[in-house]
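fyi for ur records
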Amino acid sequence: MNRYLDLTDEVKNALETGKPVVALESTIISHGMPYPKNVETAVSVENVIRENGAVPATIAIIGGRLKVGLTPDQLEYFGKKGTAITKVSRRDIPMIVAKGQDGATTVAATMMIASMAGIQVFATGGIGGVHRGAETTMDISADLDEFVKTPVMVICAGAKAILDLNLTMEYLETKGIPVYCYKTDELPAFYTRKSGIKAPFRADSPEELAKIWNTKNDLGIQGGFIVANPIPEEFSMDPKRINAAIDQAIAEMNKLGIHGKETTPYLLDKVQKLTGGDSLESNIRLVLNNAALAAKIAASIR
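which gave:
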């Protein structure tokens, strides 16, 4: 066990006894939603995982320690501090740990720490990807390359809709990263169920996904893979409305000169405001949906 890791008793006991565990990221708490909605959502997501037979392990860095599982007080701390907490990806972890600082883990960082702890399944909202205009900016999330290196299955609602989904899929294909779309032949687009992009692979049950994962491990194939789980129909947004909001948010972001790791938090917040909070509600619902599926998959992995 890595000497920088701190596991809660609940997570430690689950891993030692073979009980399914599902990792959760902390950036969605600090940078993805306003307080107190972020804390309420974090607690709800953990409850959904427990209701579906698994143990939640929200991952973060506090005082330079890699936390696998957060206490209610720590969740509250993260929610209140919000964007004042540093957003941490792979490259940032050594510095944050060495300096004894706090860090909110992105998909890439959460995958790394989950793998260190022996957790194979991770539920989130949407993964990072290739940003619009990346052909000139080269703005590509470190999340994508993490799937090549780290053996964690990530259940999401696809890549975030603020991204270039076609280029993201091309990048994933180039890197040999499999994407399994759950009960659909079309890639979900985060806020909406359809993107117009054909699903690379389809899977129709948690057991099927667990079997594919077990087989991958038996074959000695490195890395992880993506499970793209569409938002429930009743919470799916109108594509024209959400895309118009995203286009407006991107235009305003470009005028302000925002770039790098600040891009996603800015766009998500702006889109939420432009949709009168509807995008936030959809975001919450899709995360809960992903958590339930992740727990069922984790329970089926040997």
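The first strand starts at residue 5 and ends at 7. thats all i got for now
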